[in-house]
Amino acid sequence: MNEYLIDKARVRASFDRAASTYDAAAVLQAEVRSRMMSRLELVKLAPKVILDAGCGTGHASVELMKRFAASRVISLDLAWGMLQQTKASQHWLKRTLGLMPQSLLCADIENLPLQSDSVDVIWSNLAVQWCNDLDQVFTETERVLQPGGLLMFSTFGPDTLKELRQAASADPNHVHVSRFIDMHDIGDALVRAGYSAPVLDVEHFVLTYDDVLGVMRDLKAIGAHNAAAGRNKGLQGKGFLTKLTQNYEHFRKDGKLPATFEVVYGHAWKPETSRAEPSSHSLNGSMPITIHRRT
């Protein structure tokens, strides 16, 4: 059994429970969403259909509705509780701006219940990390995109919660923090799925807390429970929590405990036409990947 496999039922249940507390704690998610919106301004688009894949409480869906008022926005999430929050946001938008409510879809990004070549833009903010098979994710998004369509996403990289991961080594027999995929491997997966010349870059964010409980409370409030198959499925004893707290204290700086998040941004286009046979002049038929690493 792969100890890092994500338990989708647990993910769904966690986000269902967190729907009402999510926005108050999702500071990082809001910041990344804002940065992604800024990047979207650099692209000329007139999409008819936009898929917000992993919409959460729907803030990106609302922004996309306002930015592309003539577009149909499909808000998709694994958790119905999140979609209920999204529905409330869209109802407010309809009343204030006169826009029509958009579509809600409770589904998994790894198995999109959408027709092939039916979407012009796929947007996904910090949702891909809850999927088990990145190749399946990108194969599915490539399938539903129209030729010439755009995929824009963010996800977490390997440095995410590195302090918590190290502190949790007090219990080496269980998985306490999910495994996140490196930016270069994400780029390779995009190419395998048929995307054209993906562009990826990375930023590091550090949130600070007074104590370890603050870290855990925020993760719980946004539904980011440990959903790995190798997690301890029982209650952790006081001994582990004491050791975890002691280990985490080693990272304290300027009176605060850090929680690092590595955010990988990516965008790629579905080719206007199907891929040609690999050129004899290209190395293994590979396609270029542009990667930027920010400090």
What would you note in describing this structure?
This protein has 295 residues and is an alpha/beta fold. The protein has a domain at 8-157 and 179-206 and 262-272 and 289-293: Vaccinia Virus protein VP39 (Rossmann fold). It contains 10 helices and 8 strands. The chain has helices at 8-18, 22-25, 27-40, 59-67, 80-97, 134-144, 162-167, 183-192, 212-221, 238-248; strands at 49-53, 72-77, 103-106, 119-125, 145-156, 196-209, 257-269, 290-293. An 8-stranded mixed sheet has the order 3-2-1-4-5-7-6-8, sandwiched between helices. Helix 6 links the parallel strand 4 and strand 5 (145-156). Helix 6 (134-144) crosses helix 8 (183-192). The two termini are 36 Å apart.
Keywords:
295 residues, 10 helices, eight-stranded mixed sheet, Rossmann fold
Based on secondary structure, the structural category is alpha/beta
What's the helix count? Answer: 10
* Poorly predicted runs: 227-232, 275-287
Q: Give average pLDDT, whole number.
A: 84
User: Reading side by side through the largest sheet, how are the strands ordered?
Assistant: 3-2-1-4-5-7-6-8
Q: Which band does the percent of strand residues land in?
A: 15-25%
The counted number of beta strands is 8
Rg calculated over all Cα atoms: 20 Å
Largest sheet: 8 strands, mixed
Give the N-to-C terminal Cα separation.
Answer: 36 Å
Helix content: 25-40%
CATH homologous superfamily designation of one domain: Vaccinia Virus protein VP39
CATH level 3 topology of one domain: Rossmann fold
Shape: globular
Write the element-wise H/E pattern from the N-terminal end onward.
Answer: HHHEHEHEEHEHHEHHEE
Specify the CATH class of one domain. Answer: Alpha Beta
CATH architecture of one domain: 3-Layer(aba) Sandwich
